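Hi L.,

You mentioned the student needs an example of a multi-chain input paired with its predicted structure. This one should do, with 634 residues in total across all chains.
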Amino acid sequence: MMNSLNEIARFLTERDNFVILTHQYPDGDTLGSAFALCRALRKMGKRSRVIVNGVFSKKFQYLAAGMQEQDFNYQTVITVDIASVSLLGELKAEFENIVDVSIDHHAMNTSFAKMTYVDPKAAANTENIYKLIKILGVEIDREMANCIFTGLSTDTGCFKFTNVTPDTMRIAADLMELGCDSAEINRIMFDTKSMARIRMERAVLNTLTTHCGDKIAIINSTLAMEKETGAEDADMDGIAAIPRQIEGVVIGITIKEKGEKHYRVSVRTLSGYNAASICSKFGGGGHHAAGGCSIDGEFDEVKEKILAAAKEELFGK
Amino acid sequence: MMNSLNEIARFLTERDNFVILTHQYPDGDTLGSAFALCRALRKMGKRSRVIVNGVFSKKFQYLAAGMQEQDFNYQTVITVDIASVSLLGELKAEFENIVDVSIDHHAMNTSFAKMTYVDPKAAANTENIYKLIKILGVEIDREMANCIFTGLSTDTGCFKFTNVTPDTMRIAADLMELGCDSAEINRIMFDTKSMARIRMERAVLNTLTTHCGDKIAIINSTLAMEKETGAEDADMDGIAAIPRQIEGVVIGITIKEKGEKHYRVSVRTLSGYNAASICSKFGGGGHHAAGGCSIDGEFDEVKEKILAAAKEELFGK
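Structure written out for the whole complex:
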């Protein structure tokens, strides 16, 4: 059952005491959606708070800047950028059966809430939140604009990916006119790397090998490297994109040691080569351009297996 | 003497046999401006060609896709994205005194042409070209849209920098609706690195040192590295941005060996620290956020000198 943003706006107007849930491992879009909506509801004179579902990364804390704690018994539950209750993680037990409103941009949204709005064409869920706040009649201030912009920018790789639409760009333009700190947000998100990340990039670049006339490139990381560089999960973000970025490479492979003789393999391809089909040979999956699988064994063996599968994809079977 | 885009449009409508000049070391904005305007003038039934002022990099050649050679004696000379005749490089002797129209976005444009339009608020000069083509009444096709988008995207670091305005975003939205290959252009410009560049990144990351509680970071490249990695000038683009991108670093320094005991130093800073003032101690200059200078001597000596100057800036004099 899909609802319109108008229906959801009417419902929110009638209710109070909101709790807004982000998905586990919260990113810029789920956090931006939650804090923008929370700020808008408060501007309407309602009580509202966000439950950050996991670590509230330091780089995102400006989203909550200046907000007071509000303590109340919640009456209305909203989820943002959450396609299914499994993404509620530790909040699942308490909330899975009582979500009132789900606002999302994933086509596979399982309609677990009483009311659901999904626009799969929205590059970021904050596009939906922007439209909802407009309907609610709340004036978007600079802080809300920063929240909305953060979703747009982080979910599109700074307006780089194929998901960007004219709508995305025009909403960003509106937000800039509302005083949002667009360039500073972009700098924090896309022009800043932790020292651990820099060390990890150096380490994985030292493992780079290329094959089949430089059409396939492979890098790998080890547990020892993680220890040595101090890299945590957040620092590994985007590492898997590196080998495919090399000019001429059409299949990029990243092999990450997860445990003894246990490896996680990420595959990225240019159009014309199917990452999911390479990964499916090892029980994995994914999309055309990006896939993943787990392979167990000695490292050299694992590398040989995934390379063989990549060659099959490259040359046809 | 500034002219309006309307005046320039009227002039172009009356003339024919156009030659459009790009600046030396042509980038995406000057090339995008030139080919968009050239295509528009041809659609008006006029003869027009672009002179690419230097190497026409392979990655930009789609800008000229499908265009026929046109041979004619030129009657009207246009420069795009050129602030002064010195940027004409090898074309200076032939053209410096006969430029009819200069369309530019640099505030320091020296008004060397008979007619000049400068909008320093335009993030890219293709914003001006977009507006001019609209006034000329030419329908923007997909190829023109690709040219205009290329300028927008390359001059803003994929819509990341502080120069982006709401106008930039809205023009990009319009171009996407006109069918431009925005995501593919962004991939080519921002998601592709040459193998030599990857090798060079690895090499310079191996030289990384940090100082003053990781607030200053220094990398360096040597002539031997350039030889070993095969890196050319184009591969070195953006290398100077690396040290400042590290989280916590406020002054990033790149020391590039140019010859025996001869070094080029690039400084990048976060706001609050003045790169130009660091570089001016060695006869260099620049802006608040980016500066450069040359220092001669043994490498260790050069590094010590620039580090001392950076420390002065960091701690105040």
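You could point out the following to them. Residues 212 and 311 of chain A are 8 Å apart (CA to CA). The domain at 5-190 of chain A is CATH 3.90.1640.10 (inorganic pyrophosphatase (n-terminal core)).

Best wishes,
N.
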